């Protein structure tokens, strides 16, 4: 039951409610209604996310979904491309009006990769909006395990291999558990500010604690 309440695919979950609130803020930043097509690059996103946000048929908006593999799309204003978030050299500087990314930058294994992704986002987008879970929030959002990110590496691997936790079924091998633990590198607000030094901060709060951090850069309306 607790996992259902935290599952973003569940329309009545806490996470979906938070995402909807964040998205309302993002939408308030968009220059909608000005008659020009807004080109959005969603790094690591899915069409179903935008569908849940009720944004699949917005006029004068085209959304490109960039992932490691392409996926079928159902809406004419969407396209899916294969790419690497750390190297988007196929796009020139400022190619997109907005680069959007939701809970992706923490899945890149290393700080160096996170730096590369941030640099590419700032390069190919005229504006950006990048969200990530807060490292210091007590409940780790992938394993749904209190203070999981603060545990010793070996203990995190042991738990990952032996239990179904959060989004993850238990790993079959120790090697798979190690890879899963190494993949997720949660970021602090201070680190996000290093990655996006020209960005403003949007904090998502739960019980007075910062649940996630978004760095964004848009022209002042």
How would you describe what is shown here?
This protein is α/β, with parallel strands linked by helices. The chain folds into 2 domains: 2-136 and 185-217, Rossmann fold (3-Layer(aba) Sandwich), CATH 3.40.50; 143-183, no CATH class. It is 31% helix and 24% strand. Strands 3-2-1-4-5-9-8 form a 7-stranded mixed β-sheet, with helices on both faces. A two-stranded antiparallel ribbon has the order 6-7. Helix 5 (153-162) crosses helix 6 (174-183). The radius of gyration is 18 Å and the shape is globular. The N and C termini lie far apart (42 Å). The mean pLDDT is 92.
Topology summary:
Elements: H1 2-6, H2 14-29, E1 38-43, H3 47-52, E2 61-67, E3 78-82, E4 96-102, H4 111-124, E5 125-133, E6 139-140, E7 145-146, H5 153-162, H6 174-183, H7 189-195, E8 200-206, E9 209-217
Parallel strand pairs: 1-2, 1-4, 2-3, 4-5
Antiparallel strand pairs: 5-9, 6-7, 8-9
């Amino acid at each position: 039951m607790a996992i259902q309440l935290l599952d973003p695919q569940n329309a009545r979950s806490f996470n979906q409610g938070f995402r909807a609130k964040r998205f309302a803020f993002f939408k308030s930043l968009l220059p909608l209604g000005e008659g020009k097509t807004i080109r959005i690059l969603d790094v690591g996103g899915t069409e179903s996310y935008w569908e849940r946000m009720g944004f699949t048929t917005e006029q004068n908006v085209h959304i490109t979904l960039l992932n490691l593999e392409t996926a079928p799309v159902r809406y004419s204003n969407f396209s899916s491309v294969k790419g690497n978030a750390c190297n988007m050299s196929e796009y020139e500087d400022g190619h997109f009006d907005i680069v959007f990314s939701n809970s992706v930058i923490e899945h890149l294994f290393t700080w160096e990769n996170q730096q590369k992704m941030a640099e590419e986002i700032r390069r190919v987008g005229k504006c950006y909006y990048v969200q990530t879970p807060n490292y210091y929030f007590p409940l780790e959002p992938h394993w749904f395990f209190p203070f999981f990110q603060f545990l010793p590496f070996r203990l995190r691997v042991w738990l990952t291999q032996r239990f179904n936790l959060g989004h993850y079924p238990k790993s079959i091998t120790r090697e798979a558990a190690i890879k899963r633990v190494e993949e997720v590198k949660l970021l602090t607000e201070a680190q996000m500010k290093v990655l996006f030094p020209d960005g403003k901060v949007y904090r998502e709060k739960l019980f007075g604690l910062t649940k996630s951090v978004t760095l964004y850069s848009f022209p002042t309306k």
